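Quick one from the shared queue. A colleague (R.T.) flagged TRAP transporter, DctM subunit as missing a structural entry in our internal table.

Convert sequence to structure tokens.
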Amino acid sequence: MRSLLDGLYKTSGFAAAIALIAILGLVIAQMVARWSGQIFPGGAQYAGYAMAATSFLAMAYTFNHNAHIRVALFVSKSGRFRRVVEIWCYTLASLSALFLAWFAVKATLLSARINDISQGQDATPLWMPQTFMAIGAVVFAVAVVDNLARIVFSSYQGVDAVDYGHDWAGYLLSSKASRAIAVGIVLLIVYASMQAMTGFDRDAVALKIGIFLFVMFFLLGSGIWVGLALMGVAYIGMIGFTSRNPGNAMIITVWTSSSSWTLTALPLFIWMGEVLYRTRLSEDMFRGLAPWLARIPGGLLHTNVVGCTVFAAVSGSSAATLTTVGKMSIPELQKRGYPEFMTIGTLAGAATLGLMIPPSLTLIVYGVTVKESITKLFMAGVIPGLVLAAMFMLYIVAWYFLRPAQRPEPEPRMGFIAALKNSTLLIPVIALVVVVIGSMYGGYATPTEAAAFGVVGALVLAALQGSLNRHTFIESLLGATRTSAMIALILMGAAFLSLSMGFTGLPRALAAWIAEFNLSPVALIAALTVFYIVIGMFLDGISAVVLTMAIIEPMIRAAGIDLIWFGIFIVVVVEMAQITPPIGFNLFVLQSMTKHDITYIAKTALPMFGIMVLMVAILVAFPGLATWLPDQLLSQ
């Protein structure tokens, strides 16, 4: 039975990998059709369906490989109570996974019964792509429940047992009966909580919001996997603040967010990073950069900032920037003896440049919401993005002089000619970046199509280099599949939580409360900085913009603040939210990549957070940083 279940999870993972290959093929096919003046009906929709298939089918495989992430501080510090805590975590995770699976199957059957079809050119019967969603969700639920059963009825410690390395000797709940009773107690607690949330008077809004926020912090802090915890929190919000069916609302939101054409760029850029990481290309890039960056105080730590700045102009995604550059830089910097604190912290901060330097999804959403020119917003993000990157590099220089004991061994000095010769190693990576950026800014490819260029280019370069073989290809593909599924589950939970937060009215209530004070422009910006930092702790940046802008926009216009400038301000404060707990997305991605505790990663990112606060002050003092370039270019 054990080998059958493990085979099921592995098969599901390989099916997800095939779906990822299908994404690449569909994106290339659509691009070629467009270049040749042909129409590929439904190409974008098919790629979105393949994206959903990749996300769902890989969930169980990712879970069994301990690639889904959770805030494990409480688990690791629980001592003799660790088995109790694990039963709590796996029981609640099982409930969330079963909830997702039940409504995924239900939605698929409903689509088949009513013959629901997509609204695109393809008119695809939706039950067909949703079948992959249902299968993936069911296998994921089986995997989580399977792990719970193994913890209850055996000495199994869970998917991340290797991170702790202890046996259960001396831990509480030594008998199977006591562990089964513990599961029953957890189920009773969940049932009582649901009854309490629905039992309050509809007008007891403040009390419900308090319970909602408490549940959010408690579930995330107690060690439940982040995506499943967000779904659980969102469910509590839905049953407390609306009569809408939470399961139906959840599955519609999850399907819409996971089957997005825009989202397909993410796994492709991640795959590109995996190829670079698993071949000699990343090592060659460092060998080429070392002679030049090693001469700057701070040395190769600057590659984190330089790499993220360049890649931000390719992807427009903070997560894709972080995973691609991190896969290349973290192993190389560790090998060279750079302190982990600085390696992780600078990467966490610099990866947020993916939101600032165009193309930026946050700026697109902001521009559509306030009806401002997307082109002007993209232009406005260039100079502030470069200034922020320069400030990150100055922080590295300051560390170098203030902490001389932490400096690694200096890189071997070499002459100018030797450095130039070594720089030829950069040619493949630079060529790849030029192709990806050039295809997008030259108008030949969209960001998603540019990501496909990146994957194909990385594979071709690795093959020419001789470091691509069957093993590295499969490992890079499965690595990209796991990382994509991990991010996708969190995005699904965040999308459902954003919907639930909208029903609570909390973001709009806070914005309306600030509006009552009639603050001066500078005071208003200071208040909104704090406001968006707080909101960003619970929502992703795009959701924060969508949920609050209806209230914020009239305040900004009335105060005479330039809406182009305010868009750049929004991006900076949203960047801060990427590295602030409890739902700092970059922190979770780094936790998955480094296996460090989330609190440690948050501490490493704290100086970068301070730099971003300083950036807000600079934007206030020098608004021309954001407005000068679009004014100059458009006036010509």
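The chain has two domains: 1-161+173-259, 263-468+505-635.
Residues 470-504 form the longest helix (35 residues).
Added to the table.
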